[in-house]
Structure prediction request, 295 residues.
Amino acid sequence: MPIYYPDILDQRTAARTFTYGDKDVMLYALGIGLGADPMDEQELAFVYEKNLKIVPTAATVLAAAGNRPAEGRPAPQLPANHRQSTMNFMLMVHGEQKVELHRPLPAAGTFTVEGRTLGAWDKGEGKGAVVVNESVWTDEKGDKVATLTMSMFYRGDGGFGGPTEGQPEPHQVPTRTPDASIDIATRPDQALIYRLNGDRNPLHSDPAFAKGAGFPRPILHGLCTYGITCRAVLKEVLGYDADAIQSHQVRFSAPVFPGDVISVDLWKHAKNVSFEARVKARGATVIRNGLTVLR
Prediction:
């Protein structure tokens, strides 16, 4: 089915409550490679329940930890005469991701999440479409806890007649030499661990499926690479002070293969940390326009 514009701007997801605990927090940290050295006490704090810390980017998976409809809140309905847009998810690519934390996340908690479409941009017939969605976590008082924003590129859904301009501009990293660089090695089985957080797309686990999609072997989840860039900021800039991060955003530009070494370049300026990530061995920039905002 096509994208219907401007009807898509009224689409909402039903409110649902979810609960996560220390197991979910630790599994995420293991999934992005923390704790590889069990004697590293700074990283151990993210994978051991004693004084457990939470990686801010874990917000991308924790809402899937345990879901149920929010009590007394019916699923939202489109206004009369509005049409439901259903994109071709087989031709979807994750474009950008941002997590903004309105306060530091606890190591366990129960929250409500609701989603909506923020915008849709038409690249033209045969050129695809960009759709931006937002999910907001609230606590039992209705106060905002986290806002997650993602853009998805739907390669098969262009030409729907929506706007062609006005899409938010990506953050521009400095052109000067990075203030710091860090290499983070991924494990050959990294995707097999990370997928246990909820994304079991066979593209990340099944060699035959990956080849059918045009890859020589399964690729790493983009959100795993996203979490690894947060690891880089935590280690290189913040001394693993996870509560210091207010937001973390990236633009995905190329896939990572499990076993790759990811090199993250960082630029520090006031409360902003800009970054990009590369796989030097393949000459590929895998993350562009990265920005972490500190509290």
In short: Residues 180-294 form a domain with the Thiol Ester Dehydrase; Chain A fold (CATH 3.10.129.10). The two ends are 43 Å apart (CA to CA).
